[in-house]
């Protein structure tokens, strides 16, 4: 009897996690560059019941499968490109990332299969920023502002890094409305000449490509932390096929509002169903303790 109680309780926890993820998606509908997340629910390993009961699988002919619980195993990001919204601001940038891999077609999660049957991830491009602790972070939110001392920052205060890995500093008194940014992220003036910072270095947005974007961990303020192999994160030093910077645009969130609301209701209903199962077991246990014990 308790096995069913634990199964229902595990279902409640899984649906609670699912509800939290979808709620976060809805809360970021208007966050530029935000990537939707989906919870992946999986049944608890079916053979574990045999491992707990003994060291060998029963020799009797199986009569069916038994799933003892469900768990929210992982949280997958949807890397589909968001729509571009024109803002006209010279320091707003949208990043178009559709890096091709020969012979592989990718789904919304950026996962495909090559001709050998091996799983392949679609690389994704990001802007490079530095947080308050001086650590590298990646983002698709290209809404930048000119901060103290001409430093280019995000609205949250993260420094925007250049192609040389250092913070981008705008020249004193610069009229950024007269600049344009090339598709590979270089700043040029009205004549097409490169723009240099106070140190004489040509200004260019730092762009990183994550070969396995599923190794990224989401943090607050629309940024990601890299947790994968350092060799799979590379800094671009020039044009990259499938990567383009658009000045005066922002990439909108790729969250589907209608689908998110449907998932919210579905998670709530599933949670309530598991809750009723727990209540039913509670009543059964109450009878077993208070009534059956008297006989």
Automatic annotation (TrEMBL):
This is Flagellar basal body rod protein. One of its GO terms (biological process) is bacterial-type flagellum-dependent swarming motility. It comes from the Bacteria. Residues 246-290 form the Flagellar basal-body/hook protein C-terminal domain. Belongs to the flagella basal body rod proteins family. Keywords: Cell projection, Cilium, Flagellum. InterPro entries: Flag_bb_rod_N (IPR001444), Flagellar_basal_body_rod_CS (IPR019776), Flg_bb/hook_C_dom (IPR010930), FlgE/F/G-like (IPR037925), LlgE_F_G-like_D1 (IPR053967). GO terms for cellular component: bacterial-type flagellum. The keyword Chloroplast does not apply. Residues 5-35 form the Flagellar basal body rod protein N-terminal domain. Residues 124-186 form the Flagellar hook protein FlgE/F/G-like D1 domain.
């Amino acid at each position: 009897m308790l096995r069913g109680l634990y199964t229902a309780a595990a279902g409640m926890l899984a649906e609670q996690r699912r509800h939290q993820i979808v709620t976060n998606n809805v809360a970021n509908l208007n966050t530029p560059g935000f990537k939707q997340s989906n919870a992946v629910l999986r049944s608890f390993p079916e053979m574990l019941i045999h491992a707990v009961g003994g060291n060998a699988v029963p020799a009797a002919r199986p009569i069916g499968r038994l799933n003892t619980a469900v768990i929210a195993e992982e949280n997958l990001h949807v890397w589909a490109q968001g729509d571009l919204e024109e803002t006209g601001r010279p320091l707003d940038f949208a990043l178009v990332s559709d890096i091709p891999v020969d012979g592989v077609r990718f789904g919304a999660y950026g996962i495909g299969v090559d001709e050998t049957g091996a799983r392949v991830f679609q690389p994704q491009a990001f802007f490079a920023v530095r947080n308050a602790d001086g650590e590298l972070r990646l983002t698709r939110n290209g809404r930048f502002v000119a901060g103290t001392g001409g430093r280019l920052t995000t609205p949250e205060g993260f420094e925007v890094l250049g192609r040389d890995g250092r913070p981008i500093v705008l020249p004193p008194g610069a009229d950024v409305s007269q600049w344009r940014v090339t598709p590979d992220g270089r700043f040029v003036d009205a004549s097409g000449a490169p723009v240099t910072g106070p140190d004489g270095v040509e200004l260019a947005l730092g762009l990183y490509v994550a070969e396995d974007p599923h190794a990224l961990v989401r943090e607050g303020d629309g940024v990601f932390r890299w947790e994968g192999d350092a060799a799979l994160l590379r800094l671009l030093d020039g044009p990259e096929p499938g990567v383009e910077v658009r000045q005066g645009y922002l990439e909108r969130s790729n969250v589907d509002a209608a689908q998110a609301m449907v998932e919210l209701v579905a998670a709530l209903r599933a949670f309530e169903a598991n809750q009723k199962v727990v209540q039913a077991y509670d009543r059964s246990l109450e009878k077993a303790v208070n009534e059956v014990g008297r006989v």
